[in-house]
Amino acid sequence: MTSAAASRIKVGIVGGTGYTGVELLRLLSQHPYVDLTAITSRKEDGMPVSAMFPNLRGRVNISFQTPEKAALEQCDVVFFATPHGVAMNQAQHLLEHKVRIIDLAADFRLQDTQVFERWYKMPHACPSVLADSVYGLVELNRQKIADAQVIGNPGCYPTTVLLGLAPLLENGRKLVDTSNIIADCKSGVSGAGRKAEVSTLFSEASDNFKAYGVAGHRHHPEISEQLQRIAGAPVGLVFVPHLVPMIRGMFSTIYARILPEARDTDFQALFEQRYANEEFVDVMPAGSLPETRSVRASNHLRIAVHRPEGDDQLVILVAQDNLVKGASGQAVQNMNLMFGFPESAGLTHVAVLP
């Protein structure tokens, strides 16, 4: 582990041609303690990164390589911005070379291998590595992340739901009815990844709004597993994701019924106190309405707490950029902790408006 924040580390990226990959490149290219040394792609072997992503011209001067050429074993940390199933097949080899791993897919998110196999339709290749991995939601697992060798970077939807509910469930609190919590979540099209798919074609996604995964979504068991850890007991959750006609951004509206004995709770104060020292979680003033554009291209997540008409229904609004705090920014935040860097290093970008 790097002992001084001034030390530089060598960083590799496996599968850097997707949206999370280019976000990692954007963030890491401006990181004060990082040397980008390798990025892999079989199809684009030999192509300069800036030829695929012109926004990185003059910032990233390396080329894509096949995994065999990339010398990932010489890196201090390797990010996997790959489809599910890739990281777990390469993890053991890299760990033997003392390389730390941050996986942006689902290989190390779910500790229950049977649940993983049910939702991802593949056997888990390294359950022993999985058992020692850490779920990389910094605001919940900061100390464990700092000591981890393998990080399962959280999914984008789970980040909003877990941070939106954690203050209500931590420390054995009995504030809301945990048998029936509803998370109504919306994401921009980039959440589907950089691939050819009819549902994300411009003429299909533009000027349109729809729910999907209502019968079951892969992020549901991830959210449920983590909520149970937070609450210390199973939590009943209805999770419905939606696709909205924008490129990036995520907005979750969470509904929870306040228990009779908790009616006098100051929920605004509860959230403000919980996240008072969290640089990337902004609890907005009472009555606020966060917008996705207020976090666009930044690592910030904004929360507003509402209690309509002073009734027993609590409404929590959460906005984030699905590619930054929901993916690559969170991964860099994890890396900073793992190597003793300031947690905000490389992540201080202000949101883009308009």
Automatic annotation (TrEMBL):
Set out the biological process GO terms recorded for this chain's protein: L-arginine biosynthetic process
A Pfam family matched by this chain, by name?
Answer: Semialdhyde_dh
Reactions listed under catalytic activity = N-acetyl-L-glutamate 5-semialdehyde + phosphate + NADP(+) = N-acetyl-L-glutamyl 5-phosphate + NADPH + H(+)
Has UniProt tagged this entry with the keyword Iron-sulfur? Answer: no
Q: Which keywords has UniProt assigned to this entry?
A: Amino-acid biosynthesis, Arginine biosynthesis, Cytoplasm, NADP, Oxidoreductase
Q: Which InterPro entries match?
A: AGPR (IPR050085), AGPR_AS (IPR023013), AGPR_dimerisation_dom (IPR058924), AGPR_type-1 (IPR000706), NAD(P)-bd_dom_sf (IPR036291), Semialdehyde_DH_NAD-bd (IPR000534)
| Compartments, as annotated in UniProt | Cytoplasm
Q: Which GO terms describe its molecular function?
A: N-acetyl-gamma-glutamyl-phosphate reductase activity; NAD binding; NADP+ binding
One GO cellular component term: cytoplasm
- Chief place where the protein resides: cytoplasm
Residues in Semialdehyde dehydrogenase NAD-binding domain copies: 10-148
Tell me which residues this entry annotates as catalytic.
C156
- Record pathway: Amino-acid biosynthesis; L-arginine biosynthesis; N(2)-acetyl-L-ornithine from L-glutamate: step 3/4
Enzyme class, spelled out: oxidoreductase
As recorded in UniProt, its EC number(s) are 1.2.1.38
Q: Which family does it belong to?
A: Belongs to the NAGSA dehydrogenase family. Type 1 subfamily.
NCBIfam families reported for this sequence = argC
Q: What does this protein do?
A: Catalyzes the NADPH-dependent reduction of N-acetyl-5-glutamyl phosphate to yield N-acetyl-L-glutamate 5-semialdehyde.
Q: What is this protein called?
A: N-acetyl-gamma-glutamyl-phosphate reductase
Q: Which gene is transcribed and translated to give this protein?
A: argC
